Structure formats: structure tokens, C-alpha cells
Amino acid sequence: MTGKVLVILLALCAVGAGLSMYYLQVYGFYYEVEPRPGQEVTLVPQGSETAEFIAYDGFRAIDADSSPIRYRACFTTTLDLDALSAAYAPAENPEPLTAPAWFDCYDAGQIAEALENGRARAFLGAKNVHYGVDRIVTITEDGRGYAWHVLNNCGQKAYDGTVIGEECPPRPEN
User: Fold this and answer.
1) In whole angstroms, what is the distance from residue 155 CA to residue 170 CA?
2) Do 27 and 46 fall into the same domain?
């Protein structure tokens, strides 16, 4: 009798732990980013290091304090894609990161397909929004825009434990 109770108790604990981990990964740490009209979407001009604001509408974003690369955003813009390509720095090897399914305006698979088919272009949105993390902004032909964070070269070195080197700025102290 005691063995059955222990097995049931252990199974319930395992199910509870699994459900808790799922909730925390998909919902728990995320929060909606409070909109700041005119200040959320930036692109880095070619030959510059400083990002500039661009015109946009319908901004929605989520973020989490648990990781610097959990940021995802959606917006629309009326700016011409060819004009943006001529003025702003392209992102190298953009690979959209997935978002929780409940953040329905952002679909990494569709964004990647649009980039692959040439229906969208990716730009450097901002450098070092957090230490070692850059923002990538992708805009499609029909004016839909998406943003996410990726580790840059210094961030990859800092987080995998290799020596950062002189080409990276010093890591800020907490």
C-alpha cells in the first residue's frame, strides 16, 4: 500500500514540475513591452554606429528579464523597402528566433521564408542593446515589420566562456 502511494505522489510531483516548467518557459517570464510612440523601431544607417528612429504603426512587443534574446516585436510601416535598403545597414545572416505561440503576430517560419524568397529584407536595428546583443529588424514588401535580438560576436564569446579579446568592449559590471 505504501509503495502505491509513493509512486502516485512521485508521479504527481513529476507532472506538477513538468507543467510548471512549461508555464515558465512559455508564459511566466514574458511581459508586454509598454509602447513608447515613435521610439521603438530603429535602424542603423550605412557607415554609422548610431541607430535612427523610423516611422511605424501598430507596434506590439514582448520581452523577458530572464534572457537578453527573448525580445520579439511586430509593427507596420509605409516606408519603401528599396529606399530602406539604400540607406540602412543590412543584417548579416538573419535567422529569426521563435516566439511563444500566444504572441501571434510573430511567426519565425514565415519571416525566414520571406527573407529566403526575397519578399523581406533584414536590417541592423541597433548594436549592443544589451552587452553582446544586437537587434535585427526585418521588413516585408507589404510593410509588415518584425524585430528580435541576437548575440553578436562579443556576446557569443562572453556567454560561451571563451576569451573575449581586445576587439570587444569591456563587459559592464552589474
Assistant:
1) 11
2) no
**167, part of any domain:** no
Tell me the C-alpha distance between 100 and 36, whole Å.
23
Long-range Cβ contact pairs of 100-105 (< 8 A, separation 24 or more): 100/26, 100/27, 100/30, 100/62, 101/26, 102/26, 102/27, 103/30, 103/60, 103/62, 103/72, 105/60, 105/74
Q: Which domain holds residue 75?
A: 33-160
N residues, the chain: 174
- How does pLDDT run across 67-116, given as a tens digit for each residue? 888 899 999 999 999 999 999 999 988 999 999 989 999 999 999 999 99
State the Cα–Cα distance between residues 57 and 136, nearest whole angstrom.
18
Q: Report pTM.
A: 0.83
pLDDT digits (tens, 9 = 90+) for 108-142: 999 999 999 999 999 999 998 888 899 999 999 99
> 63 is written with which cell numbers?
520581452
